[in-house]
Design a protein that fits this description.
six-stranded antiparallel beta sheet; Beta-Lactamase; 297 residues; single chain; alpha+beta; 12 strands; 28% strand
């Protein structure tokens, strides 16, 4: 039987604590957003979903509790538009967990009460500081927050997004929580506020940009994008507004692309990018999160 030292045990405990911390931070992040969001462990089990996702699930998380991957896929029947079932490994959260990269797809769901909805789904893996898989986050867009019952007759009219309350809340809390989560992940992440100022990027993102945040400091994302000279994979120049971050900022919707950049270290890289807006619990727009992952050459 192999000898286990106290040092090995200490490392194992530290890794478990890091996993727990990352999921706690992801839950806190989701709790303060008005986008429907669920948090998953490495097996695909739903360990939390926020209040905004209750319409998608048809019940509060307090009432539902955790759901294994087999349970929630059976209960909510993810399908193509033509009714073809989508297996877990082909759903965005399955791809995020299996391939450890962000993924996006339009999915049709049906709740147990026969309420169906179509949603654009974005999922990204939660990779801990030691590159271990901690879980994944899944975000629903479009109609997930206002499902329609699949019966004859006119559909329910969805409340307009702009009708949400606009009163000022803890304006910085969303970005603070996003920063805390990003700082505990091995995935390169940039954060910008609602004015388009780059307010943080984590240590893994230093490799993408070729400079630490301490060195770069805050600047407009237009200025930062200009420094990286973004272009398509074919080499055509890209304007900031054409990049996922610019689309998420200006159009306030998720966007995804593959592109080439030249870091401030002079290294050219091909990267894939996912960006999405951050809407706080008051419905106000707080900024964007941009996730990068480098493509193999």
């Amino acid at each position: 039987m192999p000898h286990v030292t106290l040092g090995m045990m200490s490392i194992a405990v530290e890794v478990r604590q890091q996993k727990s911390l990352t999921l706690i931070l992801a839950r806190g992040f989701a709790s303060n957003l008005s986008m429907p969001m669920s948090v998953h462990d490495p097996t695909g089990t739903i360990v939390f979903y926020n209040e905004s996702a209750e319409a998608a699930f048809g019940v509060t998380f307090a009432e539902m509790g955790e759901l294994s991957a087999a349970e929630w896929t059976a209960r909510y029947s993810p399908e193509e538009a033509d009714g073809t079932p989508i297996p877990l490994e082909e759903l965005p959260v399955g791809v995020a967990l299996k391939e450890r990269r962000p993924a996006h797809r339009t999915v049709c769901f049906t709740r147990p009460d026969n309420v169906g909805y179509v949603a654009e789904v974005t999922a990204f893996p939660l990779m801990g500081r030691e590159e271990e898989l901690v879980g994944a986050v899944r975000i629903f867009w479009d109609d997930a927050a206002s499902p329609r019952r699949r019966v004859s007759g006119p559909p329910d009219v969805a409340a307009e997004q702009d009708g949400m309350a606009r009163h000022a809340g803890p304006k910085d809390l969303v970005l603070i929580l996003a920063r805390e989560l990003a700082s505990n992940l091995a995935t390169p992440i940039y954060l910008a506020d609602a004015d388009g100022t780059l307010v943080y990027f984590n240590e893994p993102a230093e490799r993408i940009g070729g400079r630490s945040f301490a060195e770069a400091g805050e600047m407009s994302i237009r200025q930062w994008a200009g420094l990286l000279r973004p272009r398509t994979v074919d080499g055509a120049p890209l304007q900031r507004d054409e990049m996922p971050g610019g689309i998420a900022l200006n159009e306030r919707r998720p966007a995804h692309a593959r592109l080439r950049i030249t870091g401030l270290d002079g290294v050219e890289r091909e990267i894939a990018t996912t960006a999405f807006p951050l809407f706080g619990p008051d419905g106000a727009f707080h900024g964007i999160m941009v996730i990068f992952w480098e493509q193999e050459q």
